[in-house]
């Protein structure tokens, strides 16, 4: 059997003899196979590359991958990589997709953005270092503690405070779609002893008196406010601050978000703040984060 | 439903019924079979439409890449979609039945024809069906089912797996 066998041979020559034997997928011309492949999701396209050389060729066709990239992927590259964006020159679309699927740091390492491998949708994580936290420099209130439980290896830990206020904003060329915004928080402080995960809840107080308030607003006027009691010490929980919609892949949209608990009749404490996460609304496998 | 479009032979449309339509043309398959088809049905194929506009062949359009069996199927599809009274729901039902019984080789032939004749709806449906058959299946299984022969050595396969490592990382085990 020749190297590229009937697959490529047929695409150029007459295929009049097609009825003489049964047709397989391997008999379709490469451009046609590439069209078929564009109906698969990206990891599956990559698997198909294992079938044979012709499929490998089809699986890296630019037009297959162009349909998987966000419409405004060039804006995204410009925003995330800034001057580094030139390193994308000459990459095929498949490799651009692969690059964008990595957790790409930007804004001085305080934020990360990546494409969900399967859906090609944009996900983002903003570290506690990328948030404005009232009183963060005062050691009586806040400390930064290293931990492997954060993707940024560091969380802000609140011992106690009267006025709790976390604020953040992000200006980004979000691809069109619906997004949810979550705060990843935990009551209590984790430490490891003999390899076991233990939760120190000594500073945890004040969270059952009043709910915390989560707010979200966008530069095109969307607003949402939620109230929620913080709960379950020792467990990382994603608190939903709200959703926003990006109607068209726009040049840039600004999203502001905050968490507050500013009832000054009582103090609160024992809170770990890890990150803020922005993910497509239909993202169902949140526990991965 | 317009009675002149009714097919006396049941679902397997014999294209001759279209003769009553004043505007008809002949499609000729790779193995020399001729089928008559109304211009409105033929026009659903972008490729045939272009050929009609160029007015090549004076009413007979040769299709050297499509054999008679496949062309008959494609014409059945085109006739249904050009039918005056057919609702979207009718067409959807027809599409489902049209593809559901097809073996892999027929499916591939129809894909090839759909691509070549540029019949978007048909090609879309066939692709979707082929792809559904490939999803979450092992490489070996797909090769066997779709009659694809590997021309890779074991080392090359390993190499490709490495090259595409990003696509495999974190893929749930349910994917296999």
Automatic annotation (TrEMBL), chain A:
Descriptive protein name: F-box protein PP2-A13
Organism classification: Eukaryota, Viridiplantae, Streptophyta, Embryophyta, Tracheophyta
Domain F-box: 22-68
CDD domains from the UniProt entry: F-box_AtSKIP3-like
PANTHER family reported in the protein's UniProt record: F-BOX PROTEIN PP2-A12, F-BOX PROTEIN PP2-A15
Pfam families: F-box-like, PP2
Species assigned in the record: Sesamum angolense
Automatic annotation (TrEMBL), chain B:
Pfam families: Skp1, Skp1_POZ
Domain SKP1 component POZ: 25-82
Record bears the keyword Repressor: no
SUPFAM superfamilies given in the database record: POZ domain, Skp1 dimerisation domain-like
Gene Ontology annotations of biological process type: jasmonic acid mediated signaling pathway; protein ubiquitination; ubiquitin-dependent protein catabolic process
UniProt keyword list: Ubl conjugation pathway
Pathway connected to this protein: Protein modification; protein ubiquitination
Keyword Coiled coil: no
Domain of life: Eukaryota
Span of domain SKP1 component dimerisation: 121-167
Subunit architecture: Part of a SCF (SKP1-cullin-F-box) protein ligase complex.
Membership in a protein family: Belongs to the SKP1 family.
Job of this protein: Involved in ubiquitination and subsequent proteasomal degradation of target proteins. Together with CUL1, RBX1 and a F-box protein, it forms a SCF E3 ubiquitin ligase complex. The functional specificity of this complex depends on the type of F-box protein. In the SCF complex, it serves as an adapter that links the F-box protein to CUL1.
Name the record gives this protein: SKP1-like protein
The species this protein was found in: Sesamum angolense
Lineage of source species: Eukaryota, Viridiplantae, Streptophyta, Embryophyta, Tracheophyta
């Amino acid at each position: 059997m020749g190297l590229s066998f009937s697959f490529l041979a047929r695409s150029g020559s007459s295929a009049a003899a097609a009825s003489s034997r049964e047709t397989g997928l391997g008999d379709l011309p490469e451009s046609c196979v590439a069209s078929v492949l564009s109906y698969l999701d990206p990891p599956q396209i990559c698997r198909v590359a294992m079938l044979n050389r012709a499929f490998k060729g089809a699986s890296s066709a630019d037009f297959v991958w162009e349909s998987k990239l966000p419409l405004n992927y060039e804006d995204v590259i410009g925003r995330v990589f800034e001057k580094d964006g030139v390193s994308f020159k000459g990459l095929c679309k498949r490799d651009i997709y692969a690059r964008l699927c990595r957790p790409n740091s930007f804004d001085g390492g305080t934020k990360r953005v990546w494409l969900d491998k399967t859906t090609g949708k944009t996900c983002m994580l903003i570290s506690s270092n990328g948030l404005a936290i009232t009183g963060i420099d005062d050691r009586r209130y806040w400390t930064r503690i290293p931990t492997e439980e954060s993707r940024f290896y560091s969380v802000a830990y609140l011992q106690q405070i009267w006025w709790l206020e976390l604020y953040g904003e992000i200006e980004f060329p979000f691809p069109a779609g619906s997004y949810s915004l979550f705060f990843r928080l935990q009551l209590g402080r984790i430490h490891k002893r003999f390899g076991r995960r233990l939760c120190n809840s000594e500073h945890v107080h004040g969270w059952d008196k009043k709910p915390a308030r989560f707010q979200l607003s966008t530069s095109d006027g969307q607003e949402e406010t939620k109230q929620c009691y913080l709960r379950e010490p020792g467990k990382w929980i994603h608190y939903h601050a709200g959703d926003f919609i990006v109607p068209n892949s726009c040049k840039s949209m600004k999203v502001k978000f905050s968490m507050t608990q500013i009832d000054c009749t009582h103090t609160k404490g024992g809170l770990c703040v890890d990150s803020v996460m922005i993910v497509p609304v239909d993202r169902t496998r949140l526990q991965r984060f | 439903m317009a009675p002149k479009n009714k097919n006396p032979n049941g679902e397997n449309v014999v294209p001759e019924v279209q003769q009553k339509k004043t505007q008809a043309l002949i499609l000729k398959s790779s193995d020399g079979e001729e089928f008559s088809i109304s211009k409105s049905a033929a026009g659903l194929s972008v490729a045939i439409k272009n050929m009609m506009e160029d007015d090549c062949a004076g009413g007979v359009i040769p299709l050297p890449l499509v054999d008679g069996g496949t062309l008959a199927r494609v014409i059945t599809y085109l006739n249904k979609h050009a039918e005056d009274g057919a609702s979207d729901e009718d067409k959807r039902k027809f599409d489902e039945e049209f593809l559901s019984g097809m073996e892999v080789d027929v499916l591939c032939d129809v894909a090839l024809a759909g691509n070549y004749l540029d019949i978007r709806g048909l090609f879309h449906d066939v692709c979707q069906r082929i792809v559904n058959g490939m999803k979450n299946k092992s490489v070996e299984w797909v090769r066997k089912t779709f009659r694809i022969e590997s021309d890779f050595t074991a080392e090359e396969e390993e190499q490709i797996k490495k090259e595409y490592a990003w696509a495999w990382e974190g893929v749930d085990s349910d994917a296999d």
